[in-house]
Design goal:
Keywords: Aminopeptidase, Hydrolase, Metal-binding, Protease. It catalyses: Release of N-terminal amino acids, preferentially methionine, from peptides and arylamides. Pfam families: Peptidase_M24. This protein has 283 residues and is of the alpha+beta class. The protein contains five helices and 15 strands. It has a single domain, classed as Creatine Amidinohydrolase (Alpha-Beta Complex), CATH 3.90.230.10. The strands form five sheets. Strands 1, 2, 4 and 5 form a four-stranded antiparallel sheet that branches. The protein has a three-stranded antiparallel sheet with strand order 3-12-11, with no helix packed on it. A three-stranded antiparallel sheet has the order 6-10-13, with helices on one face. A hairpin with a 6-residue loop joins strand 7 and strand 8. The protein is globular. The N and C termini lie far apart (39 Å).
């Protein structure tokens, strides 16, 4: 089956070196991005400004988060900081999501909905996932927080999940492949006795909340879409203590939970691919 012809020549314009390289790889049968996935410097700067606000929110959460705090209080911190900086919380009302941030505790993998009834306790681990729209540009990042003294098993999970993000970053090279990221993440997670969630992934971001490509955190090297300078995307491995299988809570249709209800951890950054590797736009 023939692949889609993603890289279109602009009529009346001479071929650039980038055009020639991408067309060569496309003709070899590789999956290449469409032109709309290659951001201009103006667009990248807009995404960077959004990312500054996004990272500032997570810095604030890091200062304030503690045992006895409700996840609704985290949501208020996020909403107030975002709007005070002239931005919009991207999750709020996105496809019906009712809050400004995702707060995912222990066995909740992602998309946890903040609540007054959900109180952080000593020994919990929590992922706070923040996404911001500023002047029409989107950014996305999450961090793990350990509440008080956590078990050695949870501490290792949080640490290895961050290492998985870091090895995924190192594997992402200009004119490499999305599959290189997943291969590196999976190898590191499994070496440490953990599993990688397969039903959720990283994604392109910037002009929309979710764009191509899908960035799986498992897989084979040399597969998936070509990583071209100018592409903006997230890497956000979800690492489980037990099985990689997950389910969605029926009562809200959002909360993703590990199938065996063992803990999960996740870290996420937004990146732009440059000629010499990744640049972080939000962490």
């Amino acid at each position: 089956m023939r692949r889609r012809n993603n890289w279109q020549i602009i009529k009346g314009q001479p071929l650039t070196e980038l055009d020639k390289k991408i067309l060569y790889l496309q003709n070899k049968g590789h999956l290449v991005p469409s032109r709309k996935l290659i951001k201009t410097e103006e667009q990248i700067e807009g995404i960077r400004r959004s990312g500054v606000v996004n990272s500032g929110i997570l810095d604030l959460v890091a200062k304030e988060i503690k045992a006895g705090m409700s996840t609704a209080a985290i949501d208020k911190l996020v909403y107030d900081y975002t709007t005070d900086h002239g931005a919009i919380p991207a999750p709020l009302n996105f496809e019906g999501f009712p809050k400004s941030v995702c707060t995912s505790i222990n066995e909740v993998v992602c998309h946890g909905i903040p609540s007054e009834k959900e109180i952080l306790r000593e020994g919990d681990i929590i992922n706070v996932d923040v996404s911001t729209i500023l002047d029409g540009y989107f950014s996305d990042a999450s961090r793990m927080f350990m509440i008080g003294n956590v078990s050695p098993e949870k501490e290792k999970l949080v640490r290895v999940a961050k290492e998985c993000l870091e090895v995924g970053m190192k594997a992402a090279k200009p004119f490499g492949y999305v599959g290189d990221i997943g291969h590196a993440v999976q190898k590191h997670a499994e070496k440490n006795g953990f599993s990688v969630v397969r039903d959720l992934c990283g994604h392109g971001v910037g002009l929309e909340f979710h764009e191509e490509p899908e960035v799986a955190h498992f897989g084979r090297k040399g597969t998936g879409m070509l990583l071209v300078p100018g592409m903006v995307f997230t890497i956000e491995p979800m690492i489980n203590m037990g099985t990689y299988r997950v389910y969605i809570a029926e009562e809200d249709g959002w909360t993703v939970i590990t199938d065996d209800e063992l803990p999960s951890a996740q870290w996420e950054h937004t990146f732009v691919m440059r000629e010499d590797g990744l640049e972080i736009l939000s962490d």
